[in-house]
Write a structure and sequence with these properties.
Elements (H helix, E strand, L loop, with lengths): L2 H4 L4 E4 L7 H17 L4 E4 L8 H4 L4 E4 L10 H9 L8 H8 L1 H10 L7 E5 L5 H11 L3 E5 L9 E3 L5 H9 L4 E6 L10
Parallel strand pairs: 1-2, 1-3
Antiparallel strand pairs: 4-7, 5-6, 5-7
Length: about 190
């Protein structure tokens, strides 16, 4: 073990969690865990679905590597709990995380700074009906994207190409969030970084 890795202390790799992205988080977390251990870091798996996040400090962890995805991992919740415990962590802070997971809030911030985003319609649970859903394509055209306003990655996302697919896309997104974001589809190359 090198002197620099000794300075890390005991590291919790937060993985798994309660979000719809649990499985991918476990894969990411195990990759991080192996990489840290291979460099001599005293790293341990910590799954907030199995142990309360308040146990991080009580368990002697000096810092956390966040490998959680989606809600309860990238939304500021875990970051806030760690800050209350005085535990340093990787990634963005509470405010940036909570704003970034909220796609509508992110769009509003970008637009306020003059940055273009696809046109959108927000459907809030309890304040829209079938007529509102049917009107979305009139405002955005086809194809369009329907997705939960607050989920990670592309969880719950549907590309809708005709009016008949609108209701089902909204129903699917509504299983994950009270607010549904409908966006103009922008064609382009999809890029994934390994």
């Amino acid at each position: 073990m090198s002197k620099s890795t000794l300075n890390f202390g005991k590291v919790a790799v937060l993985m798994g969690g309660l979000s719809a992205e649990r499985e991918i988080s476990l894969m990411s977390g195990n990759g991080v865990l192996q990489a840290l251990r291979s460099r001599g870091v005293d790293a341990h798996a910590f799954d907030p679905a199995e142990r309360d996040i308040s146990e991080v400090k009580k368990s002697g962890f000096a810092r956390c590597f966040i490998a959680l995805h989606g809600r309860f991992g990238e939304d500021g919740t875990v970051q806030g709990a760690l800050e209350l415990q005085g535990i340093p962590y990787t990634g963005s802070g509470v405010m940036a995380s909570s704003m970034a997971i909220d796609k509508v809030m992110t769009k509003r911030v970008l637009l306020s700074e003059g940055l273009p985003t696809p046109r959108y319609v927000l459907l809030r649970r309890g304040s829209y009906g079938s007529a509102d859903i049917s009107a979305v394509p009139d405002q955005l055209g086809f194809p369009l994207i329907v997705k939960p306003a607050r989920e990670g990655s592309s969880i719950g996302l549907t590309k809708v190409t005709e009016r008949a697919g609108m209701l089902e896309a909204v129903v699917q997104a509504a299983k994950l969030d009270a607010d549904i974001l409908c966006e103009q589809f922008i064609s382009g190359d999809e890029v994934t970084c390994p």
